[in-house]
Every structure is written in C-alpha cells, then in structure tokens.
Design brief:
41% helix, globular, Rossmann fold, 479 residues, eight-stranded mixed β-sheet, alpha/beta, six-stranded parallel β-sheet, single chain
Length: 479
Amino acid sequence: MQAQGEPLNIYIEVEIRARELERALLLGLLAAARGHRVLVGRLKGRIASGKIPVKPGIYHAKSIGGDLSTRRLLEDLTGRGFVVTSQDEEHGLIAEDYAPFARTRFSETTLSQTERVFCWGNQDQEALRLAYPKHYDRFVKTGSARVDLWRPDHAAYYENVPLTGVDLTRPLVLFVSNVAGPINTNDLATLVRSKRYSQGELDTSSVVRMIASSAYKTSMLAHLVQAVHHVASMSDDIQLVVRPHPVERWGAWNDLLGLHDNVLVTRQHSIGPWLKAASVVVQNGCTSAFEAAVGQRPLISHIPEDLGTALPPNQLGVRTHDLDELEFGIRDAINGNLAPSGCTPEERRLLDFRFAALQGPLAAERIVDSWEELDRPGLSETWSVRAVQALAEAWAMKNRADPRRSAAGGSGIASPHGSSWRDNNGELSTHPFVTEHKFQPIRRHEVNDFLRRFSRIGVRTDNVFARPLGPDMVRIETR
C-alpha cells in the first residue's frame, strides 16, 4: 500500500484533443494539487514496452475494448507493475441500448487487467454490472470530468474565451456535426483496414455494419447541409457556426457549403465556449445535446425524415422535423422565446440516469479519491522529466521532417495481411490511416490559459506546475 502522503505517478491517456484534453487536465490538476506526479497526452503507443522512460504508476485509459492492441497494451503495463483504470470516452450515451456498446468496448480479459472502470452514471454502471457480473465491484459510479465542465454552476470556465471570426453582439446559431462517415478524414475502406490491424480480424457482419452506418450518415449529411443553407438565407444578421466532428476532414464542410458571408466552419477551441455563446444549438444524435441540456442552453434536435427519432440526445430540447419548423424554432431562440433545455421532468430523468455528479463534488475529485484508495506498491518512483522531454522533442522533429511518419499511423500498407495477401489477392489500398488530425500541438500559453480558466471554477492551481513536453504531452506536478 502507498505510504501516507506518498505521491503517485499518474498517466492520463488522451486521443482526441478537442474532446478529451480539458477533462484530462482537470483530473491532472486535482491530482497534482494533492502532491501526485501526472503526465497527460498521447501516451498509448508510447508508454507500452517502455518507449518513454517513465516508472510504474496508474495508467488511466480512455477505452479497454477487447481488441488485440488493447489486450497487448494492458498485458504489458500490468506485467511491468502499472495499475490500469479506465473511463470510456465514447461513453455509449447516444445509443438507445447500452448492451451492444458494453459487449464491444469491454471484455472479460481486459476487465481482469483493469483495477477500476469509472462510470458516467447509473446507465453504464447498471448495464456493465449486468453484462460482466464477475467484475461487479470494478464499476465505480463517479461521473465524468468532461461533464464537470458542462454544469451550469461552472459556466465561468468558458467566459471571455476569444472566438475568432464571429461578432458576439449578433445572433449565433451553432450547428454541431456528428456525421463523420462520408467526410471522415479516413475513407471507409481505410477505416475497415485499421480495424483489421487493431483487432487481428474483422467478421463480415462488422464490415457490413460500418458500411450501413456510413450510408445512414450520408443521408443525415444531406439534410444537415440543406439546413445550414436554409438558415444562412434567413437573414444576413444571423451568424452560423458549423462545428465539425473531430474526425471529419478539415475543409470538407467549406467544400460542401460553398462561401457564405455569415457561415463560419471552425474547430477553434473545444465545443464548450461556442455552445455558451450560441443563441441556439442545432444537432442530431450528438453528445452536444447532453452538454447543452446539462448546461441548460437553448437546443433544437433537428430530426428530418425521422432520422434518429429514438436516439436519447434527440429527446432533449425542441424537436423539429422540416425546414419550416427549424426556422420557426431558431427565430424563437433569437427572440428569447425558446426555453432552456434540460429543465423538464422528462429531460431531468434522462440526464440524472446517465450522469452522476451533476451537483456536489466534481466527478474528477471522485476519480482522484478512488485513485488514492488503490492498494499497490511501487507506484511512486520518480522518473526523468528531462529524458521524456528530449524524446518528445525528437519525435516532433522527425514528424516535421517527414509528415508521412505521422500520417501512416500504424496501418497503411504495413497491414497484418502483409505480402502474402498481395501475392494471392492483389494490392491492398495504400491510403495511410491518418491520426494527426486528432491532436493539434499544445502550446505553453494554452496550458497557462487552461489553468486560469480552471481557477475560475474553484480548482486550485496556485500550487501546481504544468508545462508541455513536446507537442502532445503535458506534465503536471506540485510546485
């Protein structure tokens, strides 16, 4: 067991910066304020087999699916004395039924290698305990650090964040895309190949589901493009901001929409400050609906041709089914006549079932509390910050010199089928599996800005030191 007051090494995995970095920094700051040493960032492919020279500690994963690469990662970490915890960042909140998500994002093997799984709320905890009764006590209902920043009592976190390209004295309509599929950075065949690479094999039904999902999302994309055009033509005074999904191709929305003086496509910041600034949020089947409803912001769930009618996010806010209804709802919102979402009894029941820690102590605090309860020796040995920083800077220099290194990701033509496949069946697709769009470089001034904003919501930052190590990792320690 850790000695009283002995600092833990804590490693927090981040895959997609726009979605996950803020919650990771919040967890890291709270842990560092208690004296622990924290490393946040793109760690999954580096911490395995000692590619970065850190000592054993708590490795906090964003998923523990049963795929081959994850099993190998967890086997390596636990074999070297690490303790693994996890909270699934995909979360399964959007689907009507959590059970399929529980089967694909967790497994008996990976759960046996994981000390604790932190649950977003009652929904995932109940479903996971039912699906994996042998691991009943591993599922701890803490809530999510992402949701900490959605709470209306923490709205100050997003105040005075500079939003480039808009005039905040004019009405702003935020369209949030959850389409990805047809405008994904990686095309459908490349995505399938990447699954084969990570999972070792992929059955036909899984491939067919991916194709069907892409077809559904193509239909949704057509309606969303039509809706943006329609709203843009309502009035030159209305500003539209289109927020692409993190995995959508940069610029694809501009290609599809053409040029409008009152339409801005942007990935600047996380979605939070845009959502707070918007007169109304428009979405279909997206996590942004939960964020808007928890924060009690005006929300329209636009459901043309009943696409996604039964999805939980689309039970929130005002529901519209055609362009006339959408226009009416937006005019209501701009005139201040659209009630905040998340306030009706039905909406509160939906939110309370899915999210713990909507009031009281932060979910992030509850997770750090749980980390400190872990009874494992050897999680406190110091590691060389200088050595890790030198490696991080060397990786960044290599990637700048040869962008194909980062673009290839680990799939591309170096697939597990190898030359034998080409000998017998012809060439594989040579499109590389690209991942760099998921994590734009972290700048030191950005880290300082995050700290200032966290201090506004009562997070102690005066006794912590946070600095980037290279472009995609941040160390956080007590001063």
